[in-house]
């Protein structure tokens, strides 16, 4: 059986390939990437597959049985890009598509949800057997700012006391590998989240504990948070989006206590302390 992974040189994709190689022969894995030359270190065959160039997709998907469709990182272009992949997969005879969606995408108030909902609908309409991995937040989305917070003396955000059931990319990669390598997942939707939810105050306290410096959490109105992020050099649209997504956390959009992720991967999810330690290393 040939398993293909889109976006295989991305942060999640690389982890999936690495973990997948421990379960199946490397020759049965295909890395689908925009630039095959950047995939030589993956240790598996690589094929050119550019979401935005549909003409690259038929050859890329030839002979593929199972496809992990990692959602595109290009917010605003995802629906069209995913449609191209799904259409090509159907034409190529792909039997099963596993898609990385968003936690409770169908009811989420996050602006990110719309393109995931559209993609889920495309998969249903395609007639291809599929599995939805609705991932909560990557802890790394927040811990990437840990060193900057230590340098600045505070961790800023707009999430208030909202609880975030985050997990690491490695945890979500393990879930994908479990679904790709075991039977009985077709037609299922998994709401995947970390075992222990945290607030940004909890995160700041953990950064303080590990760094030995007092790093308080400073909650800001979204407009002020966006302005601060823009002052750090982020594009204005991205700063505004990040602040908006942070504020939505106050509504509980990233909280989940079903423990579906730890059941699927057969172990507890990575604790916040370990993620912070990695970020500060």
UniProtKB/TrEMBL annotation:
The keyword Oxidoreductase applies. SUPFAM superfamilies: NAD(P)-binding Rossmann-fold domains. It comes from the Bacteria. One of its GO terms (molecular function) is NAD(P)H dehydrogenase (quinone) activity. Its EC number is 1.6.5.2. Keywords: Oxidoreductase. InterPro entries: NAD(P)-bd_dom (IPR016040), NAD(P)-bd_dom_sf (IPR036291), NmrA-type_oxidoreductase (IPR052718). CDD domains: TMR_SDR_a. Gene3D superfamilies: NAD(P)-binding Rossmann-like Domain (3.40.50.720), UDP-galactose 4-epimerase, domain 1 (3.90.25.10). It holds the Pfam family NAD_binding_10. Residues 7-181 form the NAD(P)-binding domain. This is SDR family oxidoreductase. It comes from Leptothrix discophora. The lineage of its organism: Bacteria, Pseudomonadati, Pseudomonadota, Betaproteobacteria, Burkholderiales.
